[in-house]
């Protein structure tokens, strides 16, 4: 099992982040291609797309307020993201490969 970490920026892009958004879009395509290549070997490949989390790793401080783009009305947490990865590597996801699991509080649904 391989889990790649993507980003909402890879799905929709954003101004001022050409290299980052392009690289994260590449992660999504890499996930799909690897899934096809490795399926005969019974290796599953998926990705998880987090949105900004409420904990800044650089400063170790919580962000204040509600993220304006999140329909669920709160910042995601590292625990939200970790639970998604744990699901993807669990037997409950044994028939899932080549797909992306958004863990973004609904941001991508809102942007469609």
What features would you highlight for this structure?
112 residues; alpha/beta; Rossmann fold
What is the straight-line distance between the termini? 29 Å
Q: What does the largest sheet look like?
A: 3 strands, parallel
Broad CATH class: Alpha Beta
CATH homologous superfamily classification: NAD(P)-binding Rossmann-like Domain
Report strand order across the widest sheet.
1-2-5
Can you tell me the number of structural domains? 1
Protein structure class: alpha/beta
Can you walk through the features of this model?
This protein has 112 residues and is α/β, with parallel strands linked by helices. The chain has one domain: Rossmann fold. 38% of the residues lie in helices and 16% in strands. A hairpin with a 4-residue loop joins strand 3 (55-56) and strand 4 (61-62). The longest helix is centred in the N-terminal third of the chain and has 21 residues, at 18-38. It is globular, with a radius of gyration of 15 Å. The model is unreliable at 55-60 (pLDDT under 50).
């Amino acid at each position: 099992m391989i889990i790649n970490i993507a980003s909402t920026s890879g799905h929709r892009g954003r101004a001022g982040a050409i290299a980052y958004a392009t690289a994260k879009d590449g992660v999504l395509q890499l996930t799909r291609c690897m899934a096809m290549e490795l399926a005969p070997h019974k290796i599953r490949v998926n990705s998880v797309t987090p949105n900004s989390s409420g904990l800044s790793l650089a400063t170790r401080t919580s962000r204040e307020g509600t993220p304006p783009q999140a329909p669920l009305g709160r910042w995601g947490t590292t625990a939200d993201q970790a639970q998604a990865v744990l699901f993807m590597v669990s037997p409950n996801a044994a028939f899932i490969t080549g797909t992306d699991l958004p863990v973004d509080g609904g941001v991508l649904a809102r942007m469609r």
